C-alpha cells in the first residue's frame, strides 16, 4: 500500500509542477489564458481529486484485504467496508474519466487556436468535438452499470457471482 501511495503522490506532484510551469510560460508569453488552459486546469483538478480519494481509500483497502485473508469467503468481510471501498472506486473512476476527457478537450482547444483559419479544419474540429461529446457518456454509464445496473451496484450476490474472488 505504501508503494501505491508513493507512486500516486509522485505522479500527482510531477503533474502539478508541469501544470504550474505551463501556466507560468503561457502567462509570460501571451499575458493571458485561453480555453485550453481552463480545460487543462479542470483536468488537473480532477486528477488531483482522484489522487486524494485513492489516498483516503488505501486504509479501507488494507482493512478489506486483511479481513478477506482472515475470512473464508469475500462475502464474510463486513459489508460496510466493501461498500465504502466500492463507492470510493466509483468516485476515482469518475474523476479519471473526466480528467482524461478534459485533457482531450484541452488539446482540441489548442488545435482550434492553432489551425482555425482552415475551413476544412473547422468542419473536422466540430465532428471530433461531437464524437468526444458522445463518447464521454459510455465510460460514465459503464461506471454505474458495471454490476448489472445501478440498483445492483452494491448487491454482493451479483458482485461475487460475476467474478471469482479468492481470499
Cα-based radius of gyration, to the nearest Å: 21 Å
**How many DSSP E strands?**
0
**What's the oligomerization state?**
single chain
Distance between the termini: 17 Å
Helix content: over 70%
How many individual helices?
6
Class per helix and strand makeup: mainly alpha
Overall average residue pLDDT: 79
Poorly predicted runs of 5 or more residues: none
User: How much of the polypeptide forms β-strand, as a percent range?
Assistant: under 5%
Notes on the structure:
- The chain has 167 residues and is mainly alpha-helical.
- The protein is built from six helices and no strands.
- It has helices at residues 2-30, 35-70, 79-115, 119-135, 137-145, 156-162.
- Helix 3 runs antiparallel to helix 4 and helix 3 runs antiparallel to helix 5.
- The radius of gyration is 21 Å and the shape is flat.
- It starts with a helix and ends in a 5-residue tail after the last helix.
How do the strands and helices of this protein lay out in sequence?
Elements: H1 2-30, H2 35-70, H3 79-115, H4 119-135, H5 137-145, H6 156-162
Helix pairs in contact: 1-2, 2-3, 3-4, 3-5
